[in-house]
Write a structure and sequence with these properties.
heterodimer; A: alpha/beta; Rossmann fold; two-stranded antiparallel ribbon; B: alpha/beta; Pyruvate-ferredoxin Oxidoreductase, domain 3; Alpha-Beta Plaits; six-stranded mixed β-sheet; disordered N terminus
């Protein structure tokens, strides 16, 4: 149980204190998700010098700036592309990608499916707050139906994306989802994802309080956290109730796991074999 | 009577009648109590089925509305030549079977004074409500009746470690059948019929262990009757309070707090508030239990929960 390490874990040891307080709005769920990530890294006793955090553009993309480790803040939608290069060149590093729902699924959707397909050892967090928060609240691929955003003033009519189903179908080694409401559970899921030898994709359901919550009259930040309780349910209960709690309900927990070979190891093995063959040929 | 978890205790002065003879027209009253999930209803069904097969009129009435795991469950079984009311009045139960210690204590007044037979498992299932003091290390409020107090209420009483007996047989869920075996010594039905009743109501694949459990319960009572009654159980050492209230300290980084109110609204003890500058502060240090929920849910990392040195030393010793 990850709760055991709670007294020893001080999140401030992992933050760039000169950058604090962070730029996120009051009550933003991304801060809670960041704590869970740092807690899981603390539990794994990860050396900060061996940790590389890559993030794209957006509210979630800014989180890497607050982590006291090697961090990259890269182009929109491309954190997985940068992370792939980094993980291939430096297999000694632990590579974590922090991405938002728009960053990961819209502009970076292609990178996501190919990262899942390759199954390289990268941990990808997608912080899903159902909206483009930083640019003023436009509709995103994960916005639930009938939700009001700046670009859907009469309610969103597009079906929303189930990112975990996408990642699992594309072959990600580990797929999980959890809300920010249950922090130890979220940290545990991230720990399991970080420990997975292949590509792990974790969707964190986070609350955008100032823009999405306000537009949709979802109440204060504390009410939005409590709302997660009624809208989400653990994987174990998935088949026990016929009717979903809500139209946009999403199952949580570990949703998919497979033991496909990790791409980095396979790549290095193939490269070594080619080099050896070339050297043999040269000697002849 | 023995209040402790022990398999050698009885409070039967002198030779005991094998069955409290039911008066010709009076029904036999058996009250079965326990906690949701233990098998109270199964015991009462087996007894009712058996009595009915013997040609008695049987009335059974149960409350399992609270039968969520951990809630109290009870079942009245009355049988005899003629039964009118389905429930047992206070002070009129001939036999009280308790599958849980505190439930047994709760229902003691229903037992017929002087002549009632009390069969109680020493198993303790402490409900969440027993934790009135939610500080870490605080003692639980659980039934504190002494054996002497119990002796006042019962004619004949047995404290059986039925759950331990069932565990030794390989399935702790057979504890209710151990008690059914103990009950069988107090009623005048042939043992073969009892076993048929057990077979009727347990899952097929657990029949062997349940029949063993039944015989263990029966044998245990027969052995216990030969022993001298236990007057007083050894007093268990009171658990010292390892963490006194008010030892939790919150470290609040004021310049990071953005007044989002999450900690204030979601604190289970409601001990936080926003001050005049809309910065979080600990309003009631006495009620804070140090559960860390505020620390975990603070998106701005402004709260850190500390247990002060004194408290930590207390919990180590």
């Amino acid at each position: 149980m990850i709760v055991d390490s709670a007294p020893a874990f001080d999140v401030r040891e992992y933050l760039r204190k000169e950058m604090m307080p962070h730029f996120l709005c009051p009550g933003c769920g991304h801060g809670i998700a960041l704590r869970a990530l740092l807690w899981a890294l603390h539990e794994l006793k990860v050396d900060k010098d061996k940790l590389a955090v890559v993030s794209g553009i957006g509210c979630a993309g800014r989180l890497s700036a607050y982590i006291d480790a090697s961090t990259f803040h890269v182009t929109h939608g491309r954190p997985l592309a940068y992370a792939t290069g980094l993980a291939l060149a430096r297999p000694d590093l632990r590579v974590v990608v922090i991405s938002g729902d728009g960053d990961c699924l819209a502009i970076g959707g292609n990178h996501l499916i190919h990262a899942c397909r390759r199954n390289l050892k990268i941990t990808c967090l997608m912080l899903n707050n159902e909206v483009y928060g930083m640019t003023g609240g436009q509709v995103s691929p994960t916005t639930s139906e009938m939700r009001v955003t700046t670009t859907t003033p009469l309610g969103n009519s597009e079906p929303h994306f189930d990112a975990c189903a996408l990642a699992a179908a594309a072959g990600a080694g580990f797929v999980g989802r959890e809300g920010t409401r249950h922090v130890p559970k979220l940290a545990e899921l991230m720990l399991a994802g970080l420990e997975h030898p292949g590509f792990s994709f974790i969707e964190v359901l986070s609350d955008c309080t100032e823009i999405f919550g306000r537009k949709n009259e979802m109440g204060s930040s504390s009410e939005m956290i409590l709302r997660q309780k009624s809208e989400l349910r653990p994987e174990a209960y998935r088949d026990t109730v016929d009717t979903p709690f809500r139209a946009n309900e999403l199952p949580t927990g570990v949703l998919a796991k497979n033991a496909r070979p990790e791409y980095g190891a396979a790549y290095r093995k193939a490269a070594a074999a080619i080099k050896a063959a070339a050297a043999k040929k040269g000697r002849k | 009577m023995n209040g402790r978890r022990a398999t050698h205790s009885t409070a039967a002065p002198g030779p005991v009648p094998a069955a409290p003879a039911a008066k010709a027209r009076e029904p036999m009253n058996v009250l079965i109590v326990g906690v949701g999930g233990q098998g109270v209803i199964m015991v009462s069904k087996a007894l009712a089925w058996l009595a009915q097969s013997k040609g008695f009129e049987v009335k059974q009435s149960e409350v399992h509305g609270m039968a969520k795991r951990g809630g109290t469950v009870f079942s009245h079984v009355r049988f005899g030549p003629q039964v009118w009311s389905p429930t047992i009045a206070m002070g009129e139960a001939d036999i009280l079977i308790a599958l849980e210690w505190a439930e047994g204590m709760r229902w003691l007044p229903y037992l017929r004074p002087e002549s009632g037979v009390f069969l109680c498992d020493t198993k303790r299932i402490v409900p969440p409500f027993a934790c009135l003091n939610r500080h870490p290390g605080a003692p639980m409020r659980y039934s504190r009746e002494t054996p002497a107090e119990i002796r006042e209420h019962v004619g004949e009483g047995y404290a059986i470690a039925a759950t331990e007996i069932a565990e030794a047989l390989g399935n702790e869920r057979a504890a209710n059948v151990v008690l059914l075996g103990a009950l069988s010594t107090a009623l005048d039905f042939p043992i073969a019929d009892w076993e048929a009743a057990v077979a009727q109501f347990v899952p097929k694949k657990t029949l062997t262990v349940n029949l063993e459990a039944f015989r263990s319960g029966r044998d245990w009572i027969e052995q216990a009757r030969l022993m001298t009654p236990v007057a007083e159980a050894p007093v268990e050492a009171q658990q010292p309070l390892t963490n006194a209230p008010g030892k939790v300290r919150l470290e609040i980084t004021e310049e990071w707090c953005k007044s989002c109110d999450i900690c204030v609204k979601l604190c289970p003890e409601r001990c936080l508030r926003l001050n005049a500058d809309r910065i979080v502060e600990l309003a009631d240090a006495e009620t804070c239990t140090g559960c860390r929920l505020c620390e975990w849910l603070c998106p701005d990392f402004a709260i850190r929960v500390h247990f002060d040195e004194v408290a930590l030393e207390g919990s180590r010793s």
